[in-house]
Amino acid sequence: MLVAQRYDKIVKLVNEHGSMRVTELSERCQVTEETIRRDLDRLERQGLLRRSHGGAVSVQGEQPETPFSEREIMHAEEKRRIAEQAVKLIEPNDRILLDASTTAWYMAASLPDIPLTVLTNSIRVATQLSNREKIEVISTGGQLVSRSLSFVGPLAERSLDTYYVNKLFLSCQGVHLERGVSESNELQGRVKQKMVGMADQVILLADASKFGVQAFAHVMNLNEVDQLITDSRIDQRIVEQLQEQAMKVMIV
Question: In 3D, which of 37, 11, 55 has the Cα closest to residue 154?
């Protein structure tokens, strides 16, 4: 089998199955696992698949992230109100986690200079808080995504394993009543899954435009959300269904 043929076969297998392990690809292509790893690295650089721990996943169906500069002005007034309400839930000496959403950035902009530990995977959030004397800021590090100015990938995920926080404030691409909370791509979805697993309280910040949307990568089920902060444009029927699931809903 020629190298080009092997590349085509690897991409086809990954797309057909959604994901494949190195060991499986090695058997199917009849080459060593080390050769497969080199092939996967090259195919990832070409944007044909994405490396994962022990293998590769398909990028078919993934949605490109909207650049931060565009998200910053989308539903900006609603996001500011949601952020201001979220800040009211923070108490001195809390350990909190802010994701790389624009709503989290609005939160950082309005945070008072009180004793806090803030963990984030957002360059914009970390920079916004850099002049606060009493707030300790910890960045996850990791693979930089320029469109969202966020850190993702294995290093960011391993960094999150090191910590524990009282409150997680995060946003998302979509909130679906049956399918839960979702993100635009797997890398963002995986890092947010890690965030959910390390927090006492999960506080979802989602303006009304996010509801009814099913994005590509699953983050969590709605029963993992402790509290939702949204805006007044949300359909009252959705609010009632969420409250039936014992979720606390705040409308601003």
Answer: 55
Of 120, 116, 121, 122, residue with least CA distance to 136 = 116
Strands 116-120 and 135-139: parallel
* Cα 232 from Cα 250, distance rounded (Å): 9
Residues 195, 166: contact at Cβ < 8 Å?
A: no
Q: What is the pLDDT of residues 41-69, one digit of tens each?
A: 888 877 788 887 788 888 776 555 555 55
Three-class SS of 100-125: CCHHHHHHHHHCCCCCEEEEECEHHH
Cβ 239 vs Cβ 211: under 8 Å: no
pTM of the predicted protein model? 0.73
* 8 A C-beta contact, residue 111 and residue 132: yes
Q: What is the pLDDT of residues 173-199, one digit of tens each?
A: 899 998 899 998 888 999 999 999 999
Q: Determine the Cα–Cα distance for residues 94 and 21; give it in Å rounded to an integer.
A: 40
Residues 6+ apart with CB under 8 A from 2: none
- Tell me which DSSP letter residue 211 carries: B
In this structure, are residues 88 and 168 in contact, taking their beta carbons and an 8 Å threshold? Answer: no
Q: Are strands 227-230 and 199-205 parallel, antiparallel or unpaired?
A: parallel
The alpha carbon of 210 is separated from its chain's Cα centroid by a whole number of angstroms, namely 14
* Residue in 83, 102, 231, 105 with CA at minimum distance from that of residue 173: 102
